[in-house]
Amino acid sequence: EIVLTQSPGTLSLSPGERATLSCRASQSVSSSYLAWYQQKPGQAPRLLIYGASSRATGISDRFSGSGSGTDFTLTISRLEPEDIAVYYCQQYGSSPHSFGQGTNLEIK
Amino acid sequence: QVQLVQSGAEVKKPGASVKVSCEASGYTFTSYGITWVRQAPGQGLEWMGWISAYNGDTIYTQKFQGRVTLTTDTSTSTAYMDLRSLRSDDTAVYYCARKPQERAFDIWGQGTMVTVSS
């Protein structure tokens, strides 16, 4: 089973700043089958990035993903108050399709 | 529009079973898989398993093997998650999500709260 470790656990930034979220896998993620989801309080998760770097339909270009192998990054440029959420990475290349524990993004 | 609509909240006693439904609309049901994810209160996301709506093939995570059954009804474009021998730590929101082949979970249901309590 691939274990995903996200860092930091909590990130507190000001509007307009850039957020960098990390996801490290315990073994290589096949074919970059790595996704990022955003979950706001009381809502279902929403797909942001798939294939490590492809934006899902309707997602702002402020969100970008990068990485391969075992190290992946989600970058949110020009933070807005609406970006307050928990962000999860997930690998879907091998079963079980594990999730990271999440990064809680706070806006100062 | 493309959407998944889940059944309503459930309260069950320990040892009972629960069956959550997930009705798809706005796309060809049999062209995608359906996956199930749960989230305990204040906790992260936990993947439970996947079913092909095309041929009924399933994959279950080992933790739930033998206790969960995923099925689909193509005549009504509905997927079902049946969880047996419920325990208090099964209390969670259960989500269904659409799984395109070789892609991530792109459409999610609204979630179903299952509470297990004596």
Structure notes:
The complex is a heterodimer of chains A (108) and B (118). Chain A has no helices and ten strands. Chain A has 108 residues and is an all-beta fold. In chain A, strands 2-10-9-4-5-6 form a six-stranded mixed β-sheet, with no helix packed on it. Chain A is globular and about 35 Å long. Chain B has strands spanning 3-6, 10-12, 18-25, 33-39, 46-52, 58-60, 68-73, 78-83, 92-99, 107-108, 112-116. The interface between A and B is medium-sized, with 24 and 22 residues.
Secondary-structure element series of chain B = EEEEEEEEEEE
Radius of gyration based on Cα positions of chain B: 13 Å
Which percent range fits the helix content of chain A? under 10%
Number of helices, where a helix is a run of at least 4 consecutive DSSP H or I residues of chain A: 0
Mean pLDDT of chain B: 97
The count of β-strands of chain A is 10
The secondary-structure element order of chain A is: EEEEEEEEEE
N/C terminus separation of chain B: 40 Å
User: Quaternary state, please?
Assistant: heterodimer
Which helices and strands occur, and which strands form pairs?
The complex is a heterodimer of chains A (108) and B (118).
Chain A: E1 4-7, E2 10-13, E3 19-25, E4 34-39, E5 46-50, E6 54-55, E7 63-68, E8 71-76, E9 85-91, E10 103-107
Parallel strand pairs in A: 2-10
Antiparallel strand pairs in A: 1-3, 3-8, 4-5, 4-9, 5-6, 7-8, 9-10
Chain B: E1 3-6, E2 10-12, E3 18-25, E4 33-39, E5 46-52, E6 58-60, E7 68-73, E8 78-83, E9 92-99, E10 107-108, E11 112-116
Parallel strand pairs in B: 2-11
Antiparallel strand pairs in B: 1-3, 3-8, 4-5, 4-9, 5-6, 7-8, 9-10, 9-11
